[in-house]
Amino acid sequence: MKFWRLSPEKHEIVLESPDYSSFKFLLKGGSGEIFGRPAEFAISPDGKFLVMACELKVRYQFGVTGQTGKGILELWDLATQKRLAIWKRKIWNLESLDITSCVSFSPDGKLVATCSSSAVDIRDAATGNIIRTLSQPARTVVFSLDSKLIFSAPRVPPTDSGGMVVNEVETGREIGIWQSHQGSVTALAIDPEGFYLASGGEDRMTCLWLLPSRDELSRRVFPTSGHQLYRWEAHKTTVTALAFAPVWGSTLATGGADGTLKLWNTLSIRRELETLGLS
Can you tell me the distance from the alpha carbon of 203 to that of 33, in angstroms, rounded to the nearest whole number? Predict the structure, then answer.
């Protein structure tokens, strides 16, 4: 896997494939070689570490590959380009090699959230230990800027399609389900000042939400259904990616399954929607 550090000077970071021989038991007596295929990753806010989700696969003779249905999480030091640890999941003291579908660092760098087909795990970024599990399968997650809330888009929405679940990180308490999309939510992003959340879905729509303040959370006066500001059709296909500009946070980039990339000015989006005759 290759990365490029752009600041203070551009240079290439290459992570060579490490040894996976400890997982040879997955061959079940057969021949072949176990290797890891990078699937998802997240870089720590300080740019020093990488958490990568890998699917464990089998390489047979003549270049043929096969599936194991298993996966692991790896912690890497980007300065030394070395793997520091392998994080696993335990269920009833048994190691579970679940395939991870998303990885996200908290903005303070202390936590890492991972998604699987059964739950969202919140881990200590220093040790990899699971400190809280949210029993809801998710396809993507994101932390609020103060790392107090976590937003997850369920694989199978619990009540209706198009929802995302909001939980307190410290307690795991569910504070609401925000619904606006017709179909699954596929992408989430928080603006760099921590005021807004953007969501994108299979319905081609992008929604902009107002996030609760610390005072509203402590007094529990923020609506459990969320506070949606705007909703518009961003693409002609599923919205697959969202990102706010890190400096000019009013710019939102959206990516579609058709390969298109669009930039939106969130400060003027209301005026633009009204011009188009949309609410």
Answer: 41
